[in-house]
Automatic annotation (TrEMBL):
This is Beta-amyrin 11-oxidase-like. The lineage of its organism: Eukaryota, Viridiplantae, Streptophyta, Embryophyta, Tracheophyta. GO terms for cellular component: endoplasmic reticulum; membrane. Heme binds at C443. It comes from the Eukaryota. It comes from Cucurbita maxima. PANTHER family: CYTOCHROME P450 26, CYTOCHROME P450 88D6.
Amino acid sequence: METINVCVIIGFVLGVYMFVRKLNEIWYLVKLGRKAYKSLPPGDMGWPLLGSSFSFYKAFTVGGDPDSFIYHLLSRNGRVGMYKSHLYGKPTIIVTDPEICRRIYLDDEIFQPNYPKSVKILEVNGLFSRMDHNCAYRIMAAPINGYNVLSHYVDFIDQIMAKGLEKWSTKKEPIELLGEIGSLFFKVISRIFLGTDIGASRMAELETLYKDLGPAILSILPYDVPGLTFHRALKARKKIENILQCVIEEKRRALEKQEREVESQMDKLIMARDENGMKLYDNNAIIDLLLGLLHGGHHTPAYAAMWALVQIFETPHVFHKAKEEQESILKQRPSTQKGLTFQEIKQMKYLMKFINELLRRNTIAVASFREAKTDININGELFYYIVLDYTIPKGWTVLIWTRAIHMDPQLYSNPKEFDPSRWENHSPKPGTFIPFGMGTRFCPGSELTKLELTILLHHFILNYKMERVNPKCCITHLPAPKLVDNCLCTITKLP
C-alpha cells in the first residue's frame, strides 16, 4: 500500500510539473490560435513568466557554456535555422541560419531594433531611437570611418596606446587589464566626439560614471531599486546627462561668439543648421546621440582588446608569426620616422587575420535584438539546403544569434580552435561573419575598433609580455565575454 501511495504522489508531482511546464505553450497556443501556433518554428517556450531565462542565464553566467543554450535547441529540434523561445519577458524567435539573419538585417521596415529595457538605459529622451536612422548613422559614422578619416587618428591613437602600455609596465601591483584598456579607448572616443577642451577632471568623472553604466546592460533585474546594479546605472546616467548638458551649453556659447573653432563632432552637431538657418539638433538630441556612442565606442571594444592580448600571448605560434610581421615592417621604416603610419598598418596582413579570428572566436555582441512589425513568413531553401516554412508573429522579438553562426562547425571547422590561418584567402559568404552586424545597422565604429586593436597589438607584440595572476580564471558572458577577474595581470616591458 505504501508503495502505491508513493507512486501516486510521484505521478501527481510529475503531472503538475508537466502541466506547469506547458502553461507558456498553452498560453500562446490560445493567444495565436492553433493554425498560427503550428506555423511557428520548433523550440521551447519555457516556464510561465520566466520562459527560458533560467537556462539562458545559467549558460551565460560564471562557469557556464554559452554554446550549450543553442546546442540544446539544435539537439532537440534539429538544424532548422530558427527556434521559438521566451527570453527577457517576451516571446522570441532565435535565428541561427546565416541566410535568415541576412534577410532580417536587410529588412528595416519589418524588423526594427527593439532591445530589452536594460539596454535602453543608453537612452535619455528616446530621441535617438526615433531619429531617422540614415541621418543618425551619418552623424556617428562620418568621423570614424574611411581611410582618409582614420589616417588622421593614427598619431594620437599611437601615442595613447604607447603611453598606456608604458604606464602599465611601471605598476608594482597587478592591473585589471579590461578596465585599463577601457580607459585608453575612452580617451580616443571622447577626443573624437567631445574634443580636448572639456577638462581632465570632467573627462575622468565621465569615465568613472560609464564604469557604473556598463554592467547594467542586459541586466537580469532591470529595476530601479536601491542596491541593484540597474539602480546605480540610472544614477550614473543622470549624472552623465548633466555633464553633457553643461558641456554643450559651454561649447554653444563659445562657438556662437566665435571664441573657438569647430573641432569635435559635438561642435559640428551644435553648429549644424538647416537650409533656413535653424538648429538641426537641440541639446536633448545631442545627448541621446552621444550617451550610447561614448559607451559603445570604448566599452565593447575594450572586451575585444582584452581577449586580443590574452590570445596573442597565450598562443605562442600565433604570437611569433605576428611578431615576425611587425619586425619586418619596422625594418622597412625610414630612420627619421617616429611612430606608426597608416600605410604600415595596411601592411599588417597577418594581424588582420588575427583580428578577424578574434572577432569570430570571442564574439562580443552575442545577439542583435529586433521586433517583427507584422506577421512575416520565412520560407524557401536556406544556407544549409534546408527547405522550411515558418511564421514570425507580429510583436515577437527576433534574436539574430551571432555567436551560433560564428561557432557553427559547418561554417568554421573546429570552431573552438583559435586559428587565424582559416582566414587565408577566405572571403566569408554573406551572413556567416557578422561581428559588427550588416546592412544599414552595421556598426559605425567597426573600422575605428580594428585600428585601435591593431595599434595596441603592434606595441604589445614588439615590446611587452603579460603574466596573468589567475590563469585558470572563470569566464562570464554577460553583458559580454570576459574573465571574472577582469584579466588581472602584470605587464612587463621587454629589455
